[in-house]
Amino acid sequence: MNMDILTEEKILTKIIELEKKKSDLNQKLQSLISSNSSAWNTYGSELCAGSMMAEEKNLSDKIAEVDRNIDILTSFFDGEFILTEETILKKKLEIIENSKATLKKEEDAINLLLSKFSKFRELLDS
Length: 126
Fold this sequence. Notes:
Helix content is 88%, strand content 0%. It is mostly helical and 126 residues long.
């Protein structure tokens, strides 16, 4: 079997797994919202609304994270990236990091010279 087909199957399996997780989280969230609403109607201000909202937000954040993960996996099928590009991108990043280091050294050298100029002017003015 072709490696690309294996990769595609693995991606599809993961997407299905994440869709199930998202569905489960959505059900939990709806149940929690219903439960919190019912409790609030029954007990009102005796409850800690902040805690209820935090629980709901926590589940919403988990759902959003699952959505982001699904988007990343489906972007492969949308042609947004090709798996072989990873090596090229890592090499480009390494070149950028090296350039940043070189520029930092140049910046430090310039700042040192400028501080000498500053001290020179200070000595002349005193």
